[in-house]
Structure formats: structure tokens, C-alpha cells
Amino acid sequence: MFTDEDMSAVFHALSHESRRKVLDLLKAEPGLSVGALAGRFDVSRIAVMNHLAVLEKAGLVISEKDGRSRRLYLNAAPIQMIQDRWMSEYSSHFAQRLTGVKYAAEAAANKKDPK
Amino acid sequence: MITAMMVNTMEFAEREIYAVTIDAPIQVVWDTLVKTDEALPFFFGAVCDTKDGLKSGASMRMITPNGKFASVVGDVIEFSPPHRYAHTMQFTQYDDGPCTVTYELSEVDGGTLFKLITENVPAGTKTEKSMTSGGPFITANLKSLVETGRPKLSGRMVMTLGPLLGLVTPKRSRIENWPL
Q1: CA-to-CA distance for B88 and B63, rounded, in angstroms?
Q2: What count of Cα atoms within 13 Å lies in the side-chain half-sphere of residue A43?
Q3: How close B88 comes to chain A (CA, Å)?
Q4: What residues pair up with B49 in beta bridges, in sequence order?
Q5: What ipTM is given for this predicted complex?
């Protein structure tokens, strides 16, 4: 089951900029240690740990013990289940074409007219 | 889609984890996962084919239901029902070397925690791209199949389209090129 409660936890976790940044970092560097992750933020280690707790509770981050440190991984499955709720294979195909044009056009416009 | 976030992946793509909690007993999840000789919607409609069953050291391949093509070939590294199943895998249509897939099942409050772990995926390759989209597909479709008795729409579509996929499958994937 992926209940409304589960989904609320995922959206709550995603509603904070720092937590989204944690997911960006883990997507780019799967297995980042807690210490290394905390080093990427200006806020206190405690604040980062609190964000991690929220992300883990939502299932978006998985941590595994590795000796004395903990390694962190992004879990994309809850995001897949959000997509499953509102998007079909067809709509995701066409939505991707649409966003693909958006990204390409914006990148092209940026090149021409750097802000 | 290439983003700035991909810059650092070379060094770190060796391990990724996908996880879902499935509302079903561990044995049911296991039996669904390791079925052989039957089209599996959560494996893109392929059939897991072996000489005489899945066991440590055995060769396995994922084949089309008509038995004409093998999409994936590998060797079983560990087969420990109902908790752990690991195998190497290589896409027959790419030149990339093999990577490792491990399935871990554990009993948790509310059912079974099902984890899919990919390791040693060659960074920046077609294999990596396929694995990154395959991970969520497999975990979400297996969950739906076990809990509701039917795969998600994406899983049903690969079952329907299966026969058509043969048309776009390259010659090198023909089954006679990939013996067990």
C-alpha cells in the first residue's frame, strides 16, 4: 500500500529546500556518508540530522551502516509511486516531450542572452 | 536528460538502492520474485530462464515469452530463500560489462521490505541509464502485483507490447547467441 498518509510524509519531506538539496546530493553521489553530507551545508549537523530523519521516515532516503559511518542513498521508489498516481505511460511520454522542449529552449535562450 | 547533477556520478555510481514496503507476507513476495518459466510483468514481460532452477552458481537469462530473444544474461551469486537473491546481469544489446543486482527481503511492520540494490553499474553507459529507470519500475510493479494481483499500467503495457518488442530487438540478442 502507498496510503495518503505515506504520500503526505513524502510531500512534507519534499516541502523544504534543504531536504530537496539533500536528495540532489544523494542522487549525484549515492552512498555519501552522513558526515560528508553535513559538510555540504552551512547549518548545524543537528539540523541536517533532523532533515535526514524526515527524509528517512518518508522513505526517500535509505541509510546503511558501513563500519563506523552511515552511508546514505536516495530511494526513488516513493517518487515513482507519486508519478504512478497521476501519470500514465502515455501522459508521461508526452509530458516528457513538452518538458524536453522547455529545457532545450530555455538553455538556448540563456546562451543567446546570458543574464 | 543531462543535468548538472550528473557531473559527479562517475565516481559514485557503483551502488544504488530502491526500496518499497509490500503489504504481503515475505514468502509471497519471494515466490513472485523468483518465478521462472512465466512472463513477469515487473521484469518488462520477460521470462526468467534457467537449466534447472535458480540456485547459487546457476546461469540465468531473461528471455522473451516466445523464446526467441534474450534481453539479459547473468549468473546467480546467491540464492537464499526467502531473504536474499543476487545475480550478475548484462544487457545483451550493449557492450557494457556485467553489473550486480541484489534483492533483499525482510519482514517489517506492515509486510515485507523489498530492496533492490544495483552495484558496479558502469557509469555513464546505456546500462546505467537502463538500470536507473528499471529500479523504480521493478520495485513499484512487483509491489502492485503482489498486493493487488495485477501489475501497474506500465507493467500491463509491456506485457501487451511484448510481441512487438521482438521487432525492435537487435540480432545480437537472438537466443542462440546467449546459451545457458
Answers
A1: 16
A2: 12
A3: 20
A4: B61
A5: 0.73
Question: What confidence tens digit (pLDDT) does each residue in B120-154 have?
Answer: 888 788 888 888 878 888 888 888 888 888 777 77
For A73, the closest of B16, B139, B153 (CB atoms) is: B16
Closest CA to A38 of A49, A24, A53: A49
CB contact under 8 A, B140 and A77: yes
Grid cell of A47 as nine digits: 539540523
Q: Which member of A1, A27, A77 has the closest CB to residue B18?
A: A77
Q: Do A64 and B5 touch (CB under 8 A)?
A: no
Over chain A, what is the mean pLDDT? 90
Burial class (CB in 10 A: 0-12, 13-18, 19+), B63: buried
Residues, chain A: 115
Question: Is it the case that residue A74 has pLDDT exceeding 60?
Answer: yes
